[in-house]
Amino acid sequence: MALSILKGLLQGYVQSLFDEGIVDDQFFQIHTLKSEEEPEHVVQLIDKYFVDVETILSELTSKIDCPDVDFSKLSELAHKVDERSLR
Fold first, then answer.
1. Measured between alpha carbons, how far is residue 67 from residues 61, 63, 83 in Å?
2. Which residues, 6 or more positions from 38, have their beta carbon under 8 angstroms from its beta carbon?
3. Contact indicator for 60, 78 with CB cutoff of 8 Å
4. Model's pTM, two decimal places?
């Protein structure tokens, strides 16, 4: 009984996040995968995202420390982080 109430509260909360534009349809797709099919797959997707972004941020940090900063390269790296975050 309590579990069904909590599930309902969670569903309402997630719907409110969607209504406010904080999450999108892709979030629901991933949430559905987690709930119905392969919870480990979702964890792997998140882990890969963090590894990718950490690598890009590390490269970004090393480029900033150079005496002759190539701003086009910094922009490209920032765009990669943005791109991965959208997925």
1. 13, 9, 27
2. none
3. yes
4. 0.55
Higher pLDDT residue, 75 or 24?
75
> What angle (nearest 5°) sits at the alpha carbon of residue 21, between those of residues 86 and 76?
25
- Determine whether 46 is exposed, middle or buried from the number of CB atoms within 10 Å of its CB (0-12, 13-18, 19+): exposed
Phi-psi category of residue 41: left, alpha or beta, with phi > 0 → left and psi -120 to 50 → alpha: alpha
CA–CA separation, 79 and 87 (whole Å): 13
pLDDT of amino acid 37: 59
10 exposure class (CB count in 10 Å sphere: 0-12, 13-18, 19+) = exposed
- Residue 37, C-beta contacts closer than 8 angstroms, at least 6 positions apart: none
- Of 26, 32, 40, which Cα lies nearest the Cα of 84? 26
Contact between residue 18 and residue 27 where contact means Cβ atoms under 8 Å apart: yes
Per-residue tokens: 15: 């719907």
